[in-house]
Amino acid sequence: MKRNIALINGIIYSEYDIFRDKALLISGPTIRGIVDISDIPDGYEQADVGGSHICPGLIDLQIYGSGEELFSAELTVDSLHKIECHLLEQGCTSFYLTLATNTLEVFRRAMAVFEEAAPKVAMGLHLEGPFLNAAKRGAHPQELIVEPQVSVLKELFAEHGDAVKMMTIAPENVSEACVRFLLERGVLLSAGHSNATREEAMAAFDTGVRAVTHLWNAMSPLHHRNVGVPGATFLHPSVCASIIVDGIHVDFEAVKLSKQLLRERLFLITDAVASCNKGIYKHVLNGDHYVLPDGTLSGSALTLLKAVENCVSRVGIALDEALRMATLYPADLIGRKDIGRLAEGTVANVLVFSSTFEVESVYFMGEKIR
Fold first, then answer.
1. Which residue in 17, 271, 332, 338 is the catalytic one?
2. N or C: which end of the chain has fewer CB within 10 A?
3. pLDDT digits (tens, 9 = 90+) for 187-235
């Protein structure tokens, strides 16, 4: 039976609007609209949120696992579903499940498991590798970084390729034919783990690479004689960039500078991993981030809501804009107009959180999760 809910007594954020003294109407799996309290239709159960913030469910385009579940180490339907449940509890209602550089067999297995799982929260896979630049590999094993060839891509995408929605590549090492193959498959291409010059990066952006992976991390530096990938990102009129706002991967002052230059083209990711003691990536929790056993920074311990909080409290970004960086902007990048906003007819993925950034309730497709 379809459940009708009216969330009241909260501050509602949707796209560029902020609503007070209004009600958000949820009808089954969809948003019916935002109306005056006096206009709530009959048959709606009113839920008073006590002055808290109401926003679209958060969207993370780069996350590897959660809790004790690192997907690439497990590669099971059960693991994927556990990650979905963990993230829903955090207010993340849509994400791209990410795998770092690995063997092609692991990638193929992940694609098959993803399709078998038929997930509802995970929208697709993001392959971060293996077509990277070893000079900027970070925590990625050098021996697994391979030269991209169309024949390799055809083999990789042969059976379950529709599961892959995003791929991070080093564009200076990827041929035009490979880029064309991936674009024809509908894969969103992002430049990362790249040592590209400004000229190489700009050329890639102009030929279909539409995003940059974790700005500042694992890429050619912003140098006064060659501004590299960061400079090309700032100078290009349309390319978007993700950024990890934990104060560890990127200094908060660098986030502030990036935001001033990129404005609506900058969006949030967590790059979050999970504790793992098996397989290629043995992630060890080091306080508020993860490292490999040799101390190499390997991932964040962020939640997306914490990244939003950091934007507000440490970078000075207004709350409504910080929320757009975790909802509207990633949704628009992947071409999803039905999520990332609370407009009539959109999916009823909703997060309610307190003034201290504590998750209070989460609705997924209209069903209350917590």
1. 271
2. N
3. 999 999 999 999 999 999 999 999 999 999 999 999 999 999 999 999 9
Give 153-199 as a DSSP string. Answer: HHHHTTTTGGGEEEEEE-GGGS-HHHHHHHHHTTPEEEE-SB---HH
The torsion region of residue 186 among left (phi > 0), alpha (psi -120 to 50) and beta comes to left
Question: At the fourth CATH level, which superfamily is domain 58-333?
Answer: Metal-dependent hydrolases (3.20.20.140)
Q: Could you tell me the CA-to-CA distances from 367 to 5, 38, 336, 349, 357 in Å, in that order?
A: 10, 24, 20, 9, 21
* Predicted TM-score of the model (pTM): 0.97
246 is catalytic: no
Q: What residue has token string 């679209």? A: 56
CATH superfamily assigned to domain 4-56+340-368: Urease, subunit C, domain 1 (2.30.40.10)
What are the two backbone dihedrals, phi and then psi, of residue 204, each rounded to the nearest 5 degrees? -65, -40
